[in-house]
Amino acid sequence: MITPADYPTNDPNRSGVSWAAIFAGAAAAAALSLILLVLGTGLGLAATSPWADEGASAKALGISTIIWLLITQILASGLGGYIAGRLRMKWANLHGDEVYFRDTAHGFLAWAVATLVAAMLVLGTAGNLLGAGATAVSGAATTAAAGVAGSDSQGKDPMGYFVDSLFRAQGPVAVSDDAANGVAARILTRSLAQGGTLAPEDRTYLAQVVAQRTRLTQPEAEARVDQVYAQLQQAKVEAKQAADAATKAAAWTALWTFVALLCGAFFASLAALFGGRQRDRVQWLEASQADYNLRHASAPIR
């Protein structure tokens, strides 16, 4: 007759955690995650095109990326949890609720270890690539805004506009091109920073400078000033829109990554429970029959 004492796993002082099974499941989950991420990257690159009118749109790529991330987490975490549950040691004579809890914990721990490994090994490189991409996206908006706002308003010469106003004559004087460009840039920068239209005196002075250097009439120069200033305002609006879009994309990416990780933890625990139940049903019967045959074969005949 087989008693609980025949199984060393019944020792109350023995830990209920099978770390070997957990690390085996975590290794499998991390490996499958890497394979699926590489596959997803290849499919994404194949679907994109350097031409604006070809390839998948940005919205389609974003949705497909989220779906693929969810699939990757479900498959990889499920495999890791199943392996952790199937390979753990036998817990004999334990209450069903305790076995349920231990299997679930093993799946969760396998997912946690795999996630930490991926964070250290995979995300170290992928984070640099994503950071470079985010820097490029935000840099485009920042460059546009910086081109609109100019460098003087950023602290190099914050008093430049007021200094120019001190020496502003009734009409433009003959100065070098660099000096004229600097005065015009400071006027446009301050007007954009104020968020309104050009002040009448600034508009008139800029038109006089333009008329002097382009041989346009005063009305034509004023029309050109208005046109250029409108273009600058439009560029500023587009820069803000690009920055807002990049911020929203980063926020949605973080939220869906959080959802994907939660799904991975859930499916890892569920798969570990399934694997543990299969391990108990198959291995317990085989072990019991083998021990029974061995005991009866070696028993002395009386």
UniProtKB/TrEMBL annotation:
<keyword id="KW-1133">Transmembrane helix</keyword>
<feature type="transmembrane region" description="Helical">
    <location>
        <begin position="104"/>
        <end position="123"/>
    </location>
</feature>
<keyword id="KW-0812">Transmembrane</keyword>
<keyword id="KW-0472">Membrane</keyword>
<protein>
    <recommendedName>
        <fullName>Transmembrane protein</fullName>
    </recommendedName>
</protein>
<feature type="transmembrane region" description="Helical">
    <location>
        <begin position="20"/>
        <end position="48"/>
    </location>
</feature>
<feature type="transmembrane region" description="Helical">
    <location>
        <begin position="254"/>
        <end position="274"/>
    </location>
</feature>
<feature type="transmembrane region" description="Helical">
    <location>
        <begin position="60"/>
        <end position="84"/>
    </location>
</feature>
